[in-house]
Amino acid sequence: MTAEAYDTVIVGGGPAGLNAALYLGRSCRRVLLVDSGDARNMAAGVMHNVVTNDGADIADFRARARAELAAYDVTFRDDEVVSVEPDGDHVVTTTKESGTFRSRTLLYAAGVRSELPPVPGLADLWGTSVFECPYCHAWEVRGKSFGVYGGVVPSECLAATLTVWSDSLTYLSDRRELPADERERLTAAGIPTVTDEIARVSPHPEGVAVELADGRSLTFGALFLHMDTEARVEPLRPWLRSGDLESVQTDERGRTALPRLYVAGDLGKNMQQAAMAAASGGLAAMAINADLVREDRPGSLPAPPPPASS
Ligand SMILES: Cc1cc2nc3c(=O)[nH]c(=O)nc-3n(C[C@H](O)[C@H](O)[C@H](O)COP(=O)(O)OP(=O)(O)OC[C@H]3O[C@@H](n4cnc5c(N)ncnc54)[C@H](O)[C@@H]3O)c2cc1C
Questions:
Q1: Residue 1 above 60 pLDDT?
Q2: How many domains is the chain partitioned into structurally?
Q3: Which residue of 82, 84, 123, 275 is surrounded by the most CB atoms within 10 Å?
Q4: Whose CA is nearest to atom 50 of ligand 1?
Q5: Is there a single domain that holds both residue 99 and residue 122?
Q6: Host domain of residue 234
Q7: For the FAD/NAD(P)-binding domain, which residue ranges apply (predicted)?
Q8: Based on the domain organization, do 13 and 143 belong to the same domain?
């Protein structure tokens, strides 16, 4: 086992983990950040809605963040964490290639995976003409016609919101029977529904072609949809008794019910946006720093406030 003991190991080098590293580095903390490099938004190439970084290349954003962190005691490992477990007053983090590390606290900021519906062709267009977040992507395709796929996860509220960016919207239910309230909301928003089965989607000079099972084809400037997401918590499994993070996160600063384990970013309680993820990383870092002060100087700080009941 590598003998290095860090104040905090951060799992995940997205906006949440990077901002937490900045806060902790600037708090004179010794930090190790391990990142496997497959960010959720990489398919889009650029990110929006991050002030001073609107339209920034995602890889470049990450590289600049790392360069800034060189001023502090932050070490990076491009590696995958395979397990994280408590060991007395430390946490033991095991990586695929770099070995095992001990730390006083662990910030888990590994993000989530988006689960695309099983429509052939969708994955190839994800991030370029198939999108989820209107705030991230609709400006670039404003004024064009939009399809909104609601075949797996109901997306009528997304469709209604998109009326801000387009007045030509079609809801595609892909044979899913819509409950009355979903139909009523679409009617209220003035959005027609096509209920036919979708065979595949494919690139089109205008954006995206949606091929129906009966051979007809519909063309849109972009396709939007809501998706299920899966938390990337595999390395935490031995530590999480219940199997899900939601049940152990206790406060708005990313503290969990498990001592020394904190969460931030898309995995946490915040909206799944880069700026919010970064903000939650900062909050978690401040909680970690304060809790380490509490441990080193007992009685010097009051206990953290109890979590607000949701
Ligand atoms: C296609 C798309 C486009 C988007 N565009 C925008 C946008 O324009 N603006 C915006 O605000 N938001 C956008 N988002 C949302 C945004 O990407 C997320 O909210 C944000 O990236 C979350 O940051 P995070 O740090 O929590 O997680 P992530 O950015 O997903 O980073 C998590 C990191 O953890 C690493 N990791 C995971 N598991 C492990 C492991 N076991 N060991 C080591 N490392 C691990 C991953 O490699 C990854 O680098 C978009 C999302 C998608 C899907």
A1: no
A2: 2
A3: 84
A4: 41
A5: no
A6: 5-114+228-296
A7: 6-281
A8: no
